[in-house]
Design brief:
Length: about 220
């Protein structure tokens, strides 16, 4: 569904990702997905935005692949040890400004969020009229954090993130979910767009090995 939906009508795409580009959760999954999409659409250009922690693995071995696939990478700094909400708010404004510049004068666009935080950026971009939102690998992050005891139930953070997740489930044009439980949760929100179940697996060890080998001088 994701391939055909985006491929049918898109000459610009913006990807929002809260993880580092070379992260084992990104390079072998979200980035690989976008690279495959680009093979089918030689006219399309992509802005791929990531939040890079100080300890992020080097992405030098990926730069040639990005250039060949017409993907512009925009890395933003994010340090979990500092004020997270302030950083995310600042990064969000930078992301939205860059997204607006990227899709200006291009009516056929997609705002694609990876995981729930990326989906938050993408759904806000949709609300601002930058293009329809698609969320890949959506999961209710706020519920997990509360269940694990990391966030307090009813805290401002838990309520805010939960609200943004409900926006995604209800208003996203398309959503790919990895489990039946998340699919059922999304359908409870009476979504306006498609909700598709698609299992996801990542060979994290292979991704780390490939990254280490490729980045050697």
């Amino acid at each position: 569904m994701g391939d055909s939906t985006i491929s049918r009508a898109s000459d610009r795409m913006v990807v929002f990702c809260q993880h580092a580009l070379a992260d084992p959760l990104v390079a072998p999954l979200m980035l690989d997905y976008v690279l495959r999409l680009q093979e089918r659409a030689p006219h399309r250009r992509v802005l791929f935005i990531t939040e890079e922690p100080p300890s992020a693995p080097s992405a030098d071995h990926l730069l040639e692949h990005l250039a060949n696939a017409r993907i512009t990478w925009m890395p933003l700094r994010y340090d979990v040890r500092r004020r997270q909400w302030l950083q995310r708010t600042f990064n969000m404004f930078r992301m939205l400004a860059a997204a607006r510049s990227s899709v200006r004068h291009h009516p056929r666009t997609w705002m694609v969020g990876y995981l729930s935080y990326g989906g938050t950026y993408a759904i806000i971009a949709q609300i601002l009229g930058l293009g329809p939102c698609m969320v890949v690998c959506f999961e209710p992050h706020s519920r997990y954090m509360v269940d694990l005891g990391i966030w307090r139930a009813g805290s401002i953070r838990a309520r805010a993130v939960s609200a943004f997740e409900r926006w995604q489930m209800r208003w996203a044009k398309a959503m790919i979910v990895p489990t039946r439980a998340v699919q059922a949760l999304a359908l409870e929100q009476q979504p306006r767009g498609e909700v598709v179940l698609h299992g996801i697996t990542i060979d994290a060890e292979r991704a780390v090995r490939c990254g280490s080998t490729s980045s050697d001088p």
